[in-house]
Write a structure and sequence with these properties.
The protein has a two-stranded antiparallel ribbon with strand order 1-2. Strands 3-4 form a two-stranded antiparallel sheet. The longest helix has about 35 residues. It has about 475 residues and is mainly alpha-helical. The protein is built from 19 helices and 4 strands. It folds into 3 domains: about 130 residues, Fumarase/aspartase (N-terminal domain) (Fumarase C, Chain B, domain 1); about 210 residues, Fumarase/aspartase (Central domain) (Fumarase C, Chain A, domain 2, Up-down Bundle), CATH 1.20.200.10; about 70 residues, Ribonucleotide Reductase Protein R1, domain 1 (Orthogonal Bundle).
């Protein structure tokens, strides 16, 4: 029996890749890389640091002595200083210069930005992979008529591909937000205790060298820029922006999964259902949309998180307060792990949606006579009929036929119209007006134009990421 709580976001939903980004190994390895980048840059700018010290640090960048760090943290109650101490035990010659001139946020904040940046890029890959699957689905069914709904009541027809293009457009908007956010990622940089760089000015006595130190460290970590000014931390509004984008993705997935759940209840389309899958512990015949339900469940959690980071951004007293620390460890990581889980499921479902065209057509034909009435009225007016009189006759027939439908009988509206002399002009042509494709407007062309103009260029740009297959844990 396991006696420790295991986060289900790790054990059930998120991928190994995303879980690794928020692991201790990844974080503390980044800390050591930052300390090496700082020391190496300080050496290159003339401080009394030797290559031997740098090499000794590099030799232990990823074999972290956690036991030493844990014991030290228990004693000093400071995680950064505990890891400085542990690193120094493995690289004793470098111990005097590790973390030289830096404050804790040099490693914590710069590392957090790097983690978030890499997590955003992983999310982007999976968003694009879903977009590819939905694009193919939309193109395949761009001209398949299906009932459209407003207020969840039958409305004019659309096509299944057009409906899929709405799901796809939501993700396209998310893609725009994601790429814009990634393009603006900046490190905290080398700013010192309250952001004034005072400690580094003391070390070098030269502001230009301090500027060069930051440029060097940022470049060594693979980035082009740092924030121009900070307090002790990078701006917490960045975290809020990150959570907002993740929330947007969750919203898009929520919409898709809810739509699929509705359509599956209509038996028009359904999510993949594996051969040995159990839909219900009690009702063996059921095919519950459990994957879509899981998307909705995780999405609801993610959507609730941005307000947390908004409060954090608004309560950074003066140059910084520490009540964001424990909070950030939870909200940022869990938001990414949950979105990763959402996108894994979304990819899986979008790759195997089952379509029941005969059921779709049956539902269309039960409603189409009502939708055809405006066309019938207009055709009769062309032949000299009175629009107001025709409308009243249609209203009466529709009410009677609608009552029959609600009693489980067939829709007899067309037969009623054929038998009414007011509609004699269309008696022999009214059946031809019941072709579903005649009621879908420009849905097909809209799908084609949308895919060509907006989606295809994205898929071409990210062609290396389109073969992603989600391997769901449960």
């Amino acid at each position: 029996m396991k006696d420790l709580y295991e986060n289900p976001l790790n054990t059930r939903y998120s991928s190994k890749e995303m879980s690794h980004l928020f692991s201790d190994d990844y974080k503390f390895t980044l800390w050591r890389k930052l300390w090496i980048a700082l020391a190496e840059s300080e050496m290159e700018l003339g401080l009394n640091i030797t290559q031997k010290q740098i090499d000794e640090m590099k030799a232990h960048v990823d074999d972290i002595n956690y036991d030493v760090a844990a014991a030290r943290e228990k004693e000093v109650r400071h995680d950064v200083m505990a890891h400085v101490y542990a690193f120094g035990k493995q690289a004793p010659s470098a111990e005097p210069i590790i973390h030289l001139g830096a404050t804790s946020c040099f490693v914590t904040d710069n590392a957090e930005v790097i983690v978030i940046d890499n997590a955003l890029k992983l999310v982007l890959k999976k968003v694009v992979a879903v977009m590819d699957k939905l694009a193919r689905f939309a193109d395949k069914y761009k001209d398949l008529p299906i009932l459209g709904y407003t207020h969840l009541q039958p409305a004019q027809l659309t096509t299944l591909g057009k409906r899929a293009s709405l799901w796809l457009q939501d993700l396209w908007l998310d893609y725009e937000s994601l790429t814009e956010l990634i393009a603006k990622v900046r490190l905290r940089g080398v700013k010192g205790t309250t952001g004034t760089q005072a400690s580094f000015l003391d070390l070098f006595g030269d502001g230009k060298k301090v500027d060069e130190l930051e440029r060097k460290v940022v470049a060594k970590m693979g980035y082009k820029a740092a924030y121009a000014v900070t307090g002790q931390t990078y701006p917490r509004k960045f975290d809020y922006n990150v959570l907002c984008v993740l929330s947007q993705i969750a919203q898009s997935a929520y919409k898709f999964a809810n739509d699929l759940r509705i359509l599956q209840s209509f038996k028009e389309i359904e999510e993949p259902f594996e051969k040995s899958q159990i839909g219900s512990s009690a009702m063996a015949y059921k095919r519950n949309p459990m994957r879509s339900e899981r998307i909705c469940s995780l999405a609801r959690f993610v959507i609730s998180l941005p307000i947390n980071e908004a409060v954090t951004a608004g309560t950074q007293w003066l140059e910084r307060t520490l009540d964001d620390s424990a909070n950030k460890r939870i909200t940022i990581s869990q938001a990414f792990l949950a979105v990763d889980g959402i996108l894994n499921i979304y990819n899986n479902v979008a790759d195997g949606i089952v379509v029941y065209e005969k059921v779709i057509n049956k539902h269309i034909m039960a409603e189409l006579p009502f939708m055809a009435t405006e066309n019938i009225i207009m055709e009769c007016v062309k032949h000299g009929g009175n629009r107001q009189e025709l409308h009243e006759h249609i209203r009466v027939h529709s009410m009677e036929s609608g009552k029959r439908v609600k009693e489980g009988l067939d829709n007899d509206l067309i037969e009623r119209i054929k038998g009414d002399e007011v509609f004699a002009a269309v008696k022999n042509s009214v059946d031809d007006m019941l072709t579903p494709s005649a009621f879908t407007g420009r849905a097909k062309q809209q799908v084609e134009n949308f895919l060509k103009q907006y989606i295809d260029p994205i898929l071409e740009k990210h062609s290396a990421d389109l073969d992603f297959k989600a391997d769901l844990k449960v």
